[in-house]
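Input/output pair, single chain:
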Amino acid sequence: MSRTLTLRVAISCTLFLACICALAGPKDKEPAPRFNATTTTGEKFTNDSIKGKVVHLEFWTTWCGFCADEAAFVDKIGHELADKGLILLAINVGESKKTVKKYLEQHPRKCKIVMMEDTNLAAMYQATVYPIYVVIDRDGNIAATQRGAGGEEALRKLLTRAGFESADAEDSDTE
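Output:
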């Protein structure tokens, strides 16, 4: 009987550790995984092409209410900081181009849109909940990640961790 219990505990621990490893993904301050991404307008991005820029990856879907709620301020921040070296890539995960095109006709975005089949990023960051925000600093390292909605202030704090001295809206107007 105790041998069976020991075996069950060992199997449970092994499965638990395997799940943790599977969900781990890239960590903050590690080099960003090698990637390729092509926007719906044909722009291409790779680790080499983003050197010296801060890249904000937003993983989203059309059916995600939180993604829709946060899209306006994500686009606003992306526009505010573009001249300071921010590249905002909104990666749609798991939906057809037709579905995304129809959605964007009704809910336009002001950022660069990337479809999942045009990048390997969704798999690298285990994009399974939405939105997911990943910020890559000017040196190509992961500066910050956030799984789930957090609001505008939380997003601005993520970008501050990537080297923007201040990602506050008031400061961006005065510089």
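The helical segments are 2-24, 65-81, 97-106, 121-124, 152-161, 169-174. The radius of gyration is 19 Å.
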